[in-house]
Amino acid sequence: MKIKKILVSQPKPASEKSPYYDIVRKYNVAIDFRPFIKVESLSAKEFRQQRIVISDYTAVIFTSRHAIDHFFHLCEELRVAVPETMKYFCTTEAISLYIQKYVQYRKRKVFFGKQGKIEDLMTVIGKHKNEKYLIPMADVHTDEVANLLTKAKVAVHQEAVMYRTVSNDIPKDEAFDYDMLIFFSPSGVASLLKNFPDYQQGEQQIACFGTTTAQAVRDAGLRLDLEAPSVQAPSMTAALELYLKEHNK
């Protein structure tokens, strides 16, 4: 089956230079962008129920830009003054640079893993074991970071749920006539099933990015037609182009 219409469950790219637009022109396909989920902060009241005092901690571990946004949003709502001595540990350099949106960027207080993997960050954290670490998290998360900190014998660390993902509603009368759906998180797969409780995949193809998203597709009893990343295709757009090259001959 040729792929003619694709739904990407992410916001529309800000730049026309996005590889998705190259795919549209090269393979004559239509691509719509629509987030299946949205992220919202916990209220100050909800956060207080966790009995976590942010000022008790001397370092924060950020695994995403969402974590940064909602950490500083809650600090403002709770009227917590983040001290200049606070240290920030980020899984990637891109995430670390995003902190500039909220605080003056000083490299001596901002650290990141060189290869973009949590294991690389743990090597850095190993040199700062005496810090008291706070880990802003979503309501649905794994305990990978906390487990690695325990393994590294970091004495004080605490996960703090600061934001949640919720489904975006799709109008019931909307034509959902896509040849392929592309997901980037387990929450996106859950949103599909929430919007369409009687969803039947049929010939509609499903693609995803990441192993946890792939597992969510399989756990939902759906057929996974394209999974990224791979050695040949490190990005979703690269994987999609290879797929279209084969199926849209």
Descriptive account of the structure:
There is one protein chain. By secondary structure, the chain is α/β, with parallel strands linked by helices. It has a domain at 40-164: Rossmann fold (3-Layer(aba) Sandwich), CATH 3.40.50.10090. The chain contains nine helices and eleven strands. The chain has helices at residues 19-27, 44-48, 65-78, 93-98, 118-125, 144-151, 186-195, 211-219, 236-247, and strands at 5-8, 30-33, 37-41, 59-62, 87-90, 110-112, 133-138, 157-167, 180-183, 205-209, 226-228. The strands form two sheets. Strands 3-8-7-4-5-6 form a six-stranded mixed beta sheet, with helices on both faces. A five-stranded parallel beta sheet has the order 2-1-9-10-11, with helices on both faces. Helix 3 (65-78) links the parallel strand 4 and strand 5 (87-90). Helix 1 packs parallel to helix 9 (236-247). The model has no long low-confidence stretch (mean pLDDT 92).
Biggest sheet: strands side by side, in what order?
3-8-7-4-5-6
Gyration radius from CA atoms, angstroms:
20 Å
H/E element string? EHEEHEHEHEHEHEEHEHEH
Strand fraction band? 15-25%
- Number of DSSP strand runs: 11
What fraction, in percent, of the residue positions are helical?
25-40%
Structural class: alpha/beta
CATH fold-level name of the domain at 40-164: Rossmann fold
CATH 2nd-level architecture of the domain at 40-164: 3-Layer(aba) Sandwich
Please tell me what the overall shape is: elongated
Q: What is the overall pLDDT average?
A: 92
Largest sheet: 6 strands, mixed
The poorly predicted ranges are: none
Name of the level-1 CATH class of the domain at 40-164: Alpha Beta
Separation, N- and C-terminal Cα atoms: 10 Å
> Helical element count?
9
